[in-house]
Write a structure and sequence with these properties.
Elements: H1 3-9, H2 13-21, E1 26-27, E2 35-42, H3 48-66, E3 69-75, H4 77-90, E4 96-100, H5 104-109, H6 118-123, H7 132-136, E5 148-153, E6 155-160, H8 161-166, H9 176-186, E7 192-195, H10 201-214, H11 231-245, H12 261-267, E8 271-277, H13 280-285, E9 293-296, E10 313-314, E11 316-322, H14 329-339, H15 342-352, H16 370-381, E12 383-384, H17 392-411, H18 418-432
Parallel strand pairs: 2-3, 2-4, 7-8, 10-12
Antiparallel strand pairs: 1-2, 4-11, 5-11, 6-8, 6-9
Helix pairs in contact: 1-17, 2-4, 10-11, 10-17, 11-17, 11-18, 17-18
Length: about 425
């Protein structure tokens, strides 16, 4: 990653670095030299507090087994990337972190992460423990992984069964045209057809990638240069934003959503459809019964253009990485080994509704529910990886922010045209250079 690209992503890094500095790690002299690790976990559940409650018993179990204490902070997605980059550039921060798998190559390019070569992988159970596709999304092609996979995910369409029945809709939509049609029937009386996370750049970029694949587009050419403002990408982004701007099946307030509020709207009956990665545990924590909703694959275009691909999700997942600046590398790797052990993989992935990227437990009955079956089928047949290039996280930030601004335009009643979409994407592309 060039210094310019890193600067784009971390305009607030100096300020954030002062926050990460207080999260530094080292030996805990107050406990007679017992090792203490600092762990930044990503927000997987209904709230930061819910994640702490899920993780704390597991961390206590790890301390009991090893004598190594782990202090966990659950970091919201809206802050996680900038805080990781701040830690990477400052050399201060946590020992162990969760990262979105799409950021692996970008963070690897900073040189701040421990690379999992064969010898390092052997310390956490060996390369052969992990599903190859999941491990492939843990670093740049041709290099040792910069992390190991922790949770495997894919997008699915969640729909409220009662709302569908009340509207006379018998089957979940399989095309975006059907989504718009169903959404209009489901919108009214303070309720909306679909909820989106319009102010979340990463969420926006994930959908931009999927729509682009369906329109036959790419965000980078084979040489790794950005191709943001191609006709295919313009059409893809417009189709996504038009769910609010033209179809009017998304509440304009969703333009400000960046903290999983769309999941809450779905759980509370304010929206009848949701596009999300493994939402089941989050919905359960908000008292939405599993039989109250259905899970279906993300829709496709009814009539894809020439070159359109049958892709309806990025290969999603959460990886676990270790910072080189840790003073307790062996303890950090021991913690990674614990979190990717068979028992923890079943416990955590079952709780979160995600899939284990560890071969030995992939067939466990805990992952045979309808939600997991849809995710498994998607990952096996219709998911594609985001480009593993050093600039991938810059792409997520710039394109995701451009879409955030387009949603804000739509929410305010400003027309979202092909020209306005192209202008936003062109500006984002210029910032990459």
């Amino acid at each position: 990653m060039s210094r310019r690209h890193l600067a784009i992503l971390t305009a607030a890094v100096l300020a954030a670095a002062s926050l990460t500095a207080c999260g530094g790690s080292g030996d805990d002299s107050s406990s007679g030299g017992a090792k203490t690790l600092t762990y930044w976990a990503s927000n997987q559940g209904a709230s930061l507090e819910a994640d702490k409650q899920i993780l704390q018993p597991e961390l206590a179990k790890f301390e009991q087994q090893t004598g190594i204490k782990v202090n966990v902070e659950v970091v919201p997605w809206s802050d996680l990337l900038n805080r990781l980059l701040a830690a990477a550039t400052s050399g201060q921060g946590p020992d162990v972190v969760n990262i979105g798998n799409t950021w692996s190559a970008s963070l690897q390019a900073t040189g701040a992460l421990v690379e999992f070569d064969d010898a390092t992988l052997a310390k956490v159970g060996g390369k052969d423990r992990f599903v190859p596709a999941a491990l492939a999304a843990a670093g740049a092609p041709g290099k040792p992984p910069a992390a190991v996979p922790l949770y495997s995910l894919a997008y699915a369409l969640y729909y409220n069964k009662k709302a569908f029945a009340d509207a006379g809709i018998t089957n979940p939509p399989t095309t975006w045209e059907q989504v718009a049609e169903a959404g209009r029937k489901l919108t009214g009386g303070g309720k909306w057809g679909l909820a989106v996370e319009g102010a979340n750049p990463s969420e926006n970029a994930h959908h931009a990638f999927t729509f682009s694949q369906q329109y036959g587009g790419e965000w980078f050419d084979p040489a790794g240069k950005p191709t943001f403002d191609t006709p295919q990408n313009v059409a893809a982004v417009k189709r996504y934003v038009d769910l609010m701007a033209v179809d009017k099946i998304v509440n304009p307030s969703n333009a400000e959503y960046a903290q999983n509020q769309s999941v809450s709207d779905f759980a509370n009956g304010k929206a009848a459809m949701l596009l999300w990665q493994a939402a089941g545990s989050n919905l359960k924590s908000q008292n939405m019964a599993p039989d109250a909703y259905g899970i279906a694959p993300v829709p496709f275009l009814a009539a894809p253009p020439a070159g359109g691909k049958k892709v309806n999700s990025m290969v999603a997942g959460i990886n676990m990485a270790v910072f080189k600046h840790t003073k307790n590398r062996d303890a950090a790797l021991e913690f990674v080994k614990f979190m990717t052990s068979d028992a923890e993989q079943v416990t955590l992935n079952k709780t979160y509704g995600s899939l284990p990227p560890v071969k030995t437990v992939a067939g466990d009955p805990a992952f045979a529910a309808p939600e997991q079956k849809v995710l498994q089928e998607t990952l096996a047949s219709t998911a594609a990886p985001l480009p593993q290039v050093p600039e991938e996280s810059t792409f997520e930030t710039l394109v995701g922010t451009a879409i955030k601004e387009l949603f804000a335009d739509a929410a305010s009643g400003k027309p979202v045209t092909e020209d306005s979409v192209r202008q936003k994407l062109s500006q984002a592309q210029q910032q990459m250079r």
